[in-house]
Amino acid sequence: MESDQMVIFKAIIRVGGYALIDAENLTKKFGELTAVDGLTLHVEEGEVFGFLGPNGAGKTTTVRMLAGLISKTSGEAKIGDYDIGNRKDRQKIRRIIGLLPENVGLYEDLSAYQNLDFYGRLYKCSEEQRQERIEYFLKMLGLWDKRDLLAGTFSKGMKQKLAIARALIHDPQILFLDEPTANLDPEASKMVRDFILELKKEDRTIFLNTHLLSEAEKICDKIGIIKTKLLAVDTPEKLIQSLGSKKTVIQLEMVNDAIVQAVRKLESRKVEVARNKLVIEVNDPIKENPDILNAVIAAGGRVQLVSEVSPTLEDAYIKFVRSMK
Amino acid sequence: MDLENTWTVTRKDFSVFRKKRGIIFTWIALPLASALGFPAILFFLVMRHHISYTQLIPLFNAFTFFFIMLASGIPIGIASYSMIGEKVEKTLEPLLATPVTDGEILLGKSIAAFIPSIASTYFGAVIFMIVINVISHQQLGYYFYPNWTAGVFLLLAAPLACLLSIELNIIASVRVSDVRTAQQFGGFLIAPFLVLYVFGEIGVISLDAKTMLMVSAVLIFVDILLFFVSRSTFRREEILTKLN
C-alpha cells in the first residue's frame, strides 16, 4: 500500500505534469557497438515529444527499449509506474503503450477491419469496444468504406494510417511513432501528419521518432536531438533561440569592401557576403537595422531589398549534430 | 498462459493461410494423391500380376504408415511460413509489442499449423481406407479397415509426428529468414520415419500397432521437450535486431 504522503506527492506531480516516460542514463550496447549512450529524458503526460537524429542515431533502439521490446544494457527507465528493466513490468508496459514501428507490418492478407480486430483481441478489448473503436478510427481516417478490403491493396499512406489506428486500438496512454512519414509521398505525409495533429488535440502522449525537422517543428511540444548520446532537449522555440542571433539580409546594387567594413565596425558584428547580399547577424533587428542601413548608405551602398532570416530548427539540429563530429 | 490469446493468434493464422493458394494446394493435393495413388498401385498388382489382396495385406499397413509420414510432411510448408511470413512481412514487431507472450505466440502458431495438417491427413486416410475396403472386400471377405493398427498409426502416431514436424519447423524458422531454408531443415524430419519404413519392409522391425505404440511414447517425450526448446530459442531481441 502506498503511504498518504506518496499519494499526495504523486498527485502534485500529476498537476504539475506527470512524467510518463522517465529515463535516466539509459544505455544499450550490441556487443562492442553502443547504440544509445546514457540517455536521460522525461516526457510528460499529454506532451508530444519529438526525437530527432540522423539514421543510426539510436532512435529506434530507444523506442524498442522503452516499449519493452529489447532489454537495456544499463541505466533506468520507467513508463508510467513500470520499470523497463523488470520482466513482469515489461508485459504491463506493452498494455499501456501503442507502437507504430518503422515498417508498418500489417497483415496484407487480412482486411483493414480484421487487422484492427486481431490487435484489439490481443489487448483484451471487449467486442463492443473493438467495434466502437474500429469504426471510430476508420471513419476518422477515411477508411471506413474500405474496411473489408485487404490491407495489401492499400496505398502506403493508407497503410500508415491503418497502422497508427492499430497502435491506438486499445486506447494506450503513450503512443510511440517510429518515422511515421518515412518513405511517403508529400500528400501521404501530410495526411499522416494531420492525423497526428488530431491526436495531439486529444491530449495524447506521443513519442515521435523522426528525421524530418519540419514535421517535428509543426507537431512537437518538446524535441530531443540524439546521435547515440542525447545532444539537446527543449522546446523547438528554445532550441532555435539557443542559436542566438537572427540575420538581416540586405540586397544591394553592388557590394564592395568599404560597405562590408562599415557594417563590421558597428559593434564588430559578423557579416557574410553572398553575391550582392550582405548577411548580418543581429540580436534585435528592430533596434539595430536602422543603424546598419545608415552605415551601408553612408558607405555608398544602394539598397534594393531588406529582409530578415530567423534561425530554424534545421540550423539548431545541424549545430548540435555537427558538434558531435 | 492465456489460451484466449493463443486462440486469437491461431484464428489470425487460419485467416492468412486461407489466402495462400500454395498452402491450400498442399492440404488437398498431397493427401488426395496418396489416398488414390496407393490403392491404384495395389489394384494394378492384383489385375496385372494376379496377386490376391490377402497376399498384399502387409502393404496395406505399409501404406497406412505413409500417412504418418504425410502428417509430418504437410505442416512443413505451413509451419515454416507461419513464422518466416511474420518476419518477411515485418509483422512480428507490432505483434511482439502487444502483451502476448512467447509461449502464446508459439502455441497459437503450432495449433494453426496442426489442425489443418492433421485434418488434411485424415481426409486422405479416410478416402484411402474406403477405397481399400471397396476394392479388397470381395476377396478378403471382410472390411480391412478400421483396425487397431490403423487406429494407432492414425490416431496416435500421426498427430504426434505432425506436432514434432511443426515444432522443428518453428524452431528452424525462428533462426532463419527464408522459407526454403526452414523447409529443408524441416524436411530432415521425414528421414527417421523413412528409416522406420525401410526397417519394416526388410523385416528388421514389424510395422504394427505395438511398434507404433513404442514410437509414439518416444514422440510424446520429444514433442514436449521441443515445445520448451522452441520457447527458449524464441529470443525476441535477437529476432527483432536481426530483422533490420
Notes on the protein architecture:
The complex is a heterodimer of chains A (about 325) and B (about 240). Chain A has about 325 residues and is α/β, with parallel strands linked by helices. In chain A, about 40% of the residues lie in helices and about 25% in strands. In chain A, strand 7, helix 7 and strand 8 form a beta-alpha-beta unit. In chain A, helix 4 packs across helix 5, helix 6 runs parallel beside helix 7 (about 185-200) and helix 10 (about 255-265) runs antiparallel to helix 11 (about 285-300). The radius of gyration of chain A is 25 Å and the shape is elongated. The longest helix of chain B has about 40 residues, at about 100-140. Chain B has helices at about 5-15, 20-50, 55-90, 90-95, 100-140, 150-175, 180-185, 190-200, 210-235, 235-244. Chain B is mostly helical and about 240 residues long. The interface between A and B is medium-sized, with 35 and 27 residues.
Count helical runs of chain B: 10
By oligomeric state, this entry counts as heterodimer
Number of DSSP E strands of chain A: 14
Which structural class should the secondary elements of chain A be placed in? alpha/beta
N-to-C order of helices and strands of chain B: HHHHHHHHHH
Rg over alpha carbons of chain A: 25 Å
- State the shape of chain A: elongated
Outline the low-pLDDT stretches of chain A.
9-15
Strand content of chain A: 25-35%
The major sheet of chain B is characterized as: none
Main β-sheet of chain A, in a few words?
Answer: 6 strands, mixed
- The percent range for helix content of chain A is 40-55%
Biggest interface, chains and residues, is:
A-B, 35 and 27 residues
Major sheet: arrangement of strands of chain A: 6-7-8-3-9-10
Order of helices and strands of chain A: HEEEHEEHEHHHEHEHEEHEHEEHEH
C-alpha end-to-end distance of chain A: 50 Å
Residues in helices of chain B, as a percent range: over 70%
Annotation field: number of helices of chain A? 12
Please tell me what the overall shape of chain B is. elongated
Low-confidence stretches of chain B: none
Q: What is the mean predicted local confidence, pLDDT of chain B?
A: 88
